[in-house]
Amino acid sequence: MAEPTLWEPVPRSRTYELVLARIEEQILAGKLRVGDRLPPERELVELLEVSRAAIREALRVLEAQGVLRARVGTGPDSGSVIAAMPSAGLTQLLRLHIALANFPVKDVVEARAALERSSARLAADQATEADLDRMAECLAHMDVPEVSREEFNDHDTRFHVAIAEAGGNRLVTDLTVAVRNAVRHTLMTAFHRLDDWEAERDRLRAEHHAIHDAIAAGDAERAGDLVESHIHRFHHDVVRTVLQSPEGTSAQSAIWDGPPRER
Amino acid sequence: MAEPTLWEPVPRSRTYELVLARIEEQILAGKLRVGDRLPPERELVELLEVSRAAIREALRVLEAQGVLRARVGTGPDSGSVIAAMPSAGLTQLLRLHIALANFPVKDVVEARAALERSSARLAADQATEADLDRMAECLAHMDVPEVSREEFNDHDTRFHVAIAEAGGNRLVTDLTVAVRNAVRHTLMTAFHRLDDWEAERDRLRAEHHAIHDAIAAGDAERAGDLVESHIHRFHHDVVRTVLQSPEGTSAQSAIWDGPPRER
DNA sequence: TTTCTTGTTTGGTCCGACCAAGCAATGGGC
DNA sequence: GCCCATTGCTTGGTCGGACCAAACAAGAAA
């Protein structure tokens, strides 16, 4: 039971962390809700009896988490206001950690597959006509005969986001968007290095239409399975192959597979 | 195509955001890796020609994201060091946004189910003997006849985390831990208000053992399905029922179901 | 009534100063 | 010659004060 990792921390709290804790208390307790305004920074200085720098550092953290939105001036929209923009913060966080190779691409793909399978199942159950129309519009853009790779990739993303939004689960949607954004660059690189672009394009078109049809038909089981295998196949055929081809050094394979498991 | 939301932003960059961008550049470009040290704050002031306050605000954000770890002194471990502790930052972010009801509990449950299904499938494919032993140990703790609810919940969490770790996917593991931590309080509350604790406890025990056995047998399909239905059933039977019972006001049902969908 | 000016509030930025935690080099005592 | 306390330097942590610019509100001037 004496796990060494459990005895490590002992974090001496810095002032800004205490400020953060005070504000979080009120959020967790429901006393601060979306739209509410925090007292002005100078007032918080007096209330909490710390320097403005400490206050501001805490506010910066909340802002980065998408919980706060600060504006100057005196209007009704000014000051530090509790907001709700989780996807930006999530995207940023995941981007950095993926870049630090904490999360190998393989893991990200797996997470995407899991999340989007869930989205597709939910979407099949409760997508509205408007939702289906939005998906169909994305498909139409990708079906343009001479569509460019950028255009295609752009609407590919929109298509998957549309599915997530149709599912109505905001957490899953935001996670999906964040994960997708986080690997956007990698995806585009793979897309450009593609040898047989036309074949892959046609394959993706067919898969997308199949997914759309399953959702439209309300077949959750099939929609989920199709999305899952769609993501797995694409990353297996395209990303892995392309990233490991000519310039495929050991460094890149590490990006894919991650460091060996150690215990 | 003229979506109104796309014309809103125009974010005037603040100094700390520029500093943040510079540091992120280097991380994204792979020039800063885990373990590397940033220049001292006072040096960054000269390099970037901004105030120390701006530097520090940027560093605070990175720290909150689990990308940085700062220590005073001159030793080899001192200064601002690139680190990799994503789950803490994720947990914090999710906790706040769940509290702000951006993410209704229902959505969180769905995300958990999706992620842990994926974990279980991976675990069934590649769990080692050591992994299985750790799971079994958690089960043993939960099987103690007079186990307390706290003990049970504690090892319940460990069991699920053990599965995620056995899956070997760090992103999914960290997301799982973060999501679980974020709803820990809600979970414990539901656990305590439980009417027929013994019946629920026995049901959970049986489900846990079935999951363990499926993973041990290498049956990915079954393991995944069992975990998924396990989570769905528990939250449907316990959390939803309990949280909406006596004190079940409209506010709490909003926490569960979230605000009505508007388009 | 309308328009311009002025003042106030608010976040944004910077500077300079001091503190305490650590480590490293120094030097006396054995 | 070796050990250990002292001293000094580097580093993040904290603070107070000052000034800027954006944004709005109120009052003055047309």
TrEMBL record, chains A, B:
SMART domains membership: FCD, HTH_GNTR
Gene3D superfamilies in UniProt: GntR ligand-binding domain-like, Winged helix-like DNA-binding domain superfamily/Winged helix DNA-binding domain
Molecular-function annotations in GO: DNA binding; DNA-binding transcription factor activity
Source organism, top-level taxon: Bacteria
Coiled coil stretches, renumbered: 187-214
Pfam families xrefs: FCD, GntR
Alphabetically ordered keywords of this record: Coiled coil, DNA-binding, Transcription, Transcription regulation
InterPro entries registered for this protein in UniProt: GntR_C, TF_FadR/GntR_C, Tscrpt_reg_HTH_GntR, WH-like_DNA-bd_sf, WH_DNA-bd_sf
Residues covered by the HTH gntR-type domain: 13-85
PANTHER family the UniProt entry points to: TRANSCRIPTIONAL REGULATOR, GNTR FAMILY (PTHR43537), UXU OPERON TRANSCRIPTIONAL REGULATOR (PTHR43537:SF5)
Record's protein name: GntR family transcriptional regulator
Organism: Streptomyces lucensis JCM 4490
Lineage, highest ranks first: Bacteria, Bacillati, Actinomycetota, Actinomycetes, Kitasatosporales
